[in-house]
């Protein structure tokens, strides 16, 4: 008798396929078929599981989805995915594959489809790190879009990982002269839930800056040095550079 495994989430697919290149999956109204782990990990209408729930959470947070975050990929979720894909210049097919995972900031799912182990989890960081990162994001970018706030957090996390900066969240944020919000005391403001969410996304590996170590607002920046950094992207009022 053939062993059949129903796969509804990326984590299940990876666990089942870690020792082999393929796994068996039950398709609705169809005979069991041999499907690769990567194919099983792609989300489409009819998929269920934790990855679907996370996609829905992010799309709802950004205004693309208004349904229930229930982990069921239905017509409303597909419509929201298509709207997100169109907005981000992706193929608007309503299927969440590598490019859409990456645009959503779901780096662990993207890396799994790439066949690479995840290295972006936040298991090495404490609740205090999360709180401080949220404070920095709120103080530095509370007027920015959600992506812009995640980008600020990503720069801080990129510095933590860089040999050129302190290797802790607090060390980076409180490095002398690094952030205006620390100098003028705005770091002491209490962060809102959006800042917390942005901090969590940045810690989990979403990097809208593509590895930047610096950002600045050209309308108020006074240091000539910062203008000489190579610009990678512009999000809202901030230029992100390396």
- Specify Rg, calculated over alpha carbons: 20 Å
Ranges where pLDDT stays below 50 over 5 or more residues in a row are 1-38
- CATH homologous superfamily assignment of the largest domain: Cell wall hydrolase SleB, domain 1
CATH hierarchy, class of the largest domain: Mainly Alpha
Number of strands: 5
- Strand-pairing-aware structural class: mainly alpha
Run of helices and strands = HEEHHHHHHHHHHEHEE
Notes on the structure:
There is one protein chain. The chain is mainly α. The protein has two domains: 50-113, PGBD-like superfamily/PGBD (Muramoyl-pentapeptide Carboxypeptidase, domain 1, Orthogonal Bundle), CATH 1.10.101; 127-241, Cell wall hydrolase SleB, domain 1 (Arc Repressor Mutant, subunit A), CATH 1.10.10.2520. Helices cover 44% and strands 8% of the residues. The protein contains twelve helices and five strands. The chain has helices spanning 10-17, 37-41, 50-61, 75-87, 98-104, 107-113, 127-141, 146-161, 169-173, 180-183, 193-203, 224-227, and strands at residues 22-25, 33-36, 214-216, 231-235, 238-241. The strands form two sheets. Strands 3-5-4 form a three-stranded antiparallel sheet, with helices on one face. A hairpin with a 7-residue loop joins strand 1 and strand 2. Helix 7 packs across helix 8. The radius of gyration is 20 Å and the shape is elongated. The N and C termini lie far apart (57 Å). The relative contact order is 0.10.
């Amino acid at each position: 008798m053939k062993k059949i495994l129903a796969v509804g989430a990326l984590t299940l697919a990876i666990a089942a396929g870690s020792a082999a290149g393929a796994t068996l999956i039950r398709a609705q109204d169809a005979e069991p078929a041999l499907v690769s782990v990567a194919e099983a990990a792609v989300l489409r209408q009819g998929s269920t599981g934790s990855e679907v729930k996370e996609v829905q959470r992010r799309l709802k947070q950004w205004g693309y989805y208004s349904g229930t975050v229930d982990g069921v990929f239905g017509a409303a979720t597909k419509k929201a995915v298509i709207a997100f894909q169109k907005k981000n210049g992706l193929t608007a097919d309503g299927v969440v594959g590598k490019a859409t995972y990456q645009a959503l900031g779901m780096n662990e799912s993207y890396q799994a489809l790439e066949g690479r182990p995840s290295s972006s989890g936040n298991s090495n960081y404490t609740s205090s790190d999360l709180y401080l990162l949220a404070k920095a994001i709120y103080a530095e970018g509370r007027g920015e879009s959600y992506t812009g706030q995640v980008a600020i957090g990503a720069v801080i996390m990129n510095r933590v990982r860089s040999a050129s900066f302190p290797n802790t969240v607090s060390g980076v944020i409180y490095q002398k002269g690094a952030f205006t919000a620390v100098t003028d005391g705005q770091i002491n403001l209490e962060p809102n839930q959006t800042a917390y969410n942005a901090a969590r996304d940045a810690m989990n590996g979403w990097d809208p800056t593509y590895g930047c170590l610096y950002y600045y607002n050209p309308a108020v920046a006074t240091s000539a040095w910062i203008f000489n950094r190579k610009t990678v992207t512009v999000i809202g009022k901030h230029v992100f550079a390396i």
